[in-house]
Amino acid sequence: MTATRSREIHLQRRPVGLPSEGDFALVEVTLPEPAAGEVLVRNHYLSVDPYMRGRMVDRPSYVPPFQIGQVLEGGCVGQVIASRGNADFREGDYVSSRSGWRECYVSDGGDLTKVEPQGVPLQAYLGTMGMPGLTAYVGLLDIGKPREGETVFVSGAAGAVGMVVCQIAKIKGCRVLGSAGSATKVQWLRDVAGVDEALNYKEAASLIEEVGRLCPDGIDVYFENVGGAHLEAALEHMNPFGRLALCGMISQYNQAAPGPSNLTHAVRKRLTLQGFIVSDHPDRQPQFHADMTAWIQAGKLKWEETIVDGLENTPKAFIGLFAGDNMGKMLVRLTDDS
């Protein structure tokens, strides 16, 4: 076997504010031949996710920051194209890992998870059947704890996480309000996800007033993906003893912003605000996969994807997350689906 040429995306400089394509570099590398017990994987799809913005800042967090001049890492799915005697992974196996933002990589198998794309496309293991889906599942069911008949408000409702949250909430018998940033996304939430109410926050003169109009009986569970004005609107209309599952605050990632001006509602209304990180919940994987598979097969859960072609366009896809360019999961495709 000869050495393999591959391309990968490196962090060239730490972004200030909204990232630009100049913060990244496309680099060609030569991979070593797999040693005994190692495999060579060619990625088919890469994931870009909002949390990656935090890793571009040099500060302590729940995951180490990306390093200047090093390949960025993220979710990916691909196929083993060579195996040097690895007992767990053979040539042709499909696998997922965190070794994204590159075309190929060598692994000893310790960081790989075998996937069998039956009934869903391979890339769904980066979205609905992957980290975003598990995030929605854990955040809503374990943190939000919705009860039948309650009202659930979801910000970023047409994103990879939000659209799954909306549909699980409906499965659980809740009334659902979803917020999104375009008429097309709002229509999808109504017609496909089946939410009871949907709003285009970009057209709302007052988000607090619009949420109040659409939730006349208040909000019991708020699933937070956006932050800022959305969090203030949710706090304003939360019912006593409501639960706020704090998943992300994408509107705040590229700027230093003050906290909500009405946080005192948390005291008066005896609210529970809990942040969570999906990687803290690996024990939920088996039940998540069982439930999601059943709901998908029953036609109760649907999703959308936004696919950008070419490794060189990965930074553009990532930056597009902050402009709301994606409907559902934002993915980068590296290979022809055929």
Average pLDDT works out at: 95
Could you estimate the helical fraction of the residues in percent? 10-25%
Write down the CATH class of the largest domain: Alpha Beta
Q: CATH superfamily of the largest domain, please?
A: Medium-chain alcohol dehydrogenases, catalytic domain
Into which percentage range does the β-strand content fall? 25-35%
Here the CATH topology of the largest domain equals Quinone Oxidoreductase, Chain A, domain 1
Structural class: alpha/beta
What's the total helix number?
Answer: 9
Which regions contain 5 or more consecutive residues with pLDDT less than 50? none
Shape: globular
Radius of gyration, in Å, reads: 21 Å
Termini separation? 25 Å
In the CATH hierarchy, the architecture of the largest domain is Alpha-Beta Complex
N-to-C SSE series?
EEEHEEEEHEHEHEHEHEHEHEHE
Largest sheet: 7 strands, mixed
Quantity of strands, as a count: 15
| Number of spatially distinct domains | 2
General description of the model:
The chain is of the alpha/beta class. It has two domains: 4-127 and 304-333, Quinone Oxidoreductase, Chain A, domain 1 (Alpha-Beta Complex); 131-280, NAD(P)-binding Rossmann-like Domain (Rossmann fold, 3-Layer(aba) Sandwich), CATH 3.40.50.720. It is 24% helix and 25% strand. It has helices at residues 52-55, 131-144, 162-171, 183-193, 207-214, 229-237, 265-268, 285-297, 314-320, and strands at residues 4-11, 24-31, 39-47, 76-83, 94-97, 104-107, 113-114, 151-154, 175-180, 197-200, 219-224, 238-246, 272-275, 305-309, 329-333. Helix 4 (183-193) links the parallel strand 9 (175-180) and strand 10 (197-200). The longest helix has 14 residues, at 131-144. The radius of gyration is 21 Å and the shape is globular. The two termini are 25 Å apart. The model has no long low-confidence stretch (mean pLDDT 95).
